[in-house]
Amino acid sequence: MTDAEILPLQLTDLDSVLDLGHRAFDVDSMPYTSWSLSSVAAHWDAQPDACWTARDEEGLLGFVLGSLSYDEREDWGYLEWIALEERARGRGVASALVEHCCDALFAAGASRIITDVEGGNAASASMMRRNGFTEKVTVTLFVRLNPREHTSTGTPSPQDPARSRLRRAARATEGRSRASGDPA
């Protein structure tokens, strides 16, 4: 990797990270997810040490967002989002971001780290393999639209999974506070 610095995600990075994510991610190919400020906030709030940016003299080169816990598995890390500017490709930037994220997740207690790559994204799949990830599960998403709700204007936008994770975390925190006798 040349002329790139890997840095922890900062508040001042949010605008450029959101912009790059909107340009990089095709959430239509994975309709169970979405890209939004709450997507970034959920990871940054839950595991700030697993959220990194890469910068050069021109600005943001890329970012990675990870968190400890995948669905109900609190011992699994999740490398959920990674994106690069075109000028960063082929320079080792993605691998450096992956290593920083994985190091943080393992240090936080992850027994394994998972990620998913859209089926047609051969470059990302190859990069993940080079960084020690192996394919373990293949799932084909089948979708059946409700014919009474389907219109020619497209499908409704998916719910932001970060919001449901944040609500789940809030409920869990509230439940622990009540169980310990703390006022909610």
Tally of contiguous helical segments = 5
What ranges have pLDDT less than 50 throughout 5 or more consecutive residues? none
Q: Trace the largest sheet across and list its strands.
A: 1-2-3-4-5
| CA radius of gyration | 18 Å
The count of strands amounts to 5
Amount of helix: 25-40%
Mean pLDDT, all residues? 82
> What does the largest sheet look like?
5 strands, mixed
Order of helices and strands: EHHEEEHEHH
Beta-sheet strand percentage?
15-25%
Assembly state (oligomeric):
single chain
| Shape category | globular
Distance between the termini: 49 Å
State the secondary-structure class. alpha+beta
Question: Your description of this structure?
Answer:
This protein has 184 residues and is of the alpha+beta class. Helices cover 35% and strands 20% of the residues. The chain is built from 5 helices and 5 strands. It has helices at residues 14-24, 37-46, 93-107, 122-130, 161-179; strands spanning 5-8, 51-56, 59-70, 73-84, 112-114. It has a 5-stranded mixed sheet, with helices on both faces. Strand 4, helix 3 (93-107) and strand 5 (112-114) form a beta-alpha-beta unit. 27% of the residues are buried.
